Structures are given as structure tokens and as C-alpha cells.
Amino acid sequence: MVINFHDLYQKYAQDIYRFAYWLCGDAQEAEDITSETFVRALTSLNMIRTETVKGYLLTIARNLAFKRTKRASRLADLPPGLPALGNGPEQTAETKLSLQGVMQFMQTLPEVDRAAFLLHIQDDLSYEEISKVLEISLAAAKVKVHRTRLKLNVYRMKEEESRS
Fold it and tell me: Does the global pTM surpass 0.70?
């Protein structure tokens, strides 16, 4: 089967970007991961190893994100007192703060748990597909999605209580 690269990119680029963004929490990193995912898929000599093309691309993106996270963990953080660039009053809307809080919370979860949850909720992959993409058992995929959902609910309840 011959796959047109342009059509492949048009069909899956948004999904790959969104997945990468939630994994790494940074728009520029997500763009880089998305680009590199398609380059690797295009230049790969191997056959697609998962049942779907989307699953194959998500597997590549996940591996790239995890490699970048591992590499970034070796870098030093900036001092906490530095002013943020480009933060204007209009960006402090409550919805953005809430989304940022959820994003930060998601970054505290183990990478595999976060990936399993995002693959299920965001990309609508079945538990079987998740288990193949993440190379874990079917039961582990179900447990990881369920536990992450519970942790997210607890986080959101605590956030609501703190606002009250």
C-alpha cells in the first residue's frame, strides 16, 4: 500500500501535535516532535508495527517526547524570580489559569500513565491499541487510564475548594 505523505500529514498532524503538547507541555517542543515524527515515519525502513497508521505515528511521537523529557531533566531550572515574557493582563483569564494548572498537574504524572490517559481521552484509542502503542498489557492500560482519571478528579476538586 502506497501512502501519500501529504495526505498522511494533513490527516494526522493535528492529533500528533496535540498529543505531543500534552506530553511535554511546551508548544515549540510539540511542533518539533510533530515534525520529527513525520520525518521518521517517512524515512523509516520498517513496516508499520501497529494496527493503525495513527497508532504508529503516536508511538513515534511518544518515544520522541520521552527522549526529550529525559534529556531536559538533566538541564538546570531558571531562578524562580525571573519575570515571564509576554504575560499581559489579558492572559490571566481564569480559564487559562485553570488549563495551565491541569497542564502542570499532568506533568507530575508518570510518563506512561499520562500517555495512556491522553491516548484514550484525546485520541480515542481503544485499550488494546494503547497497550500496543505503549507496549504494556491490556490490563495495565485500563488501570493507568482509570487511575489517571481518578487523580485528575481529585486535583480538580482540590482546585475548586481552594477557589471557594
Answer: no
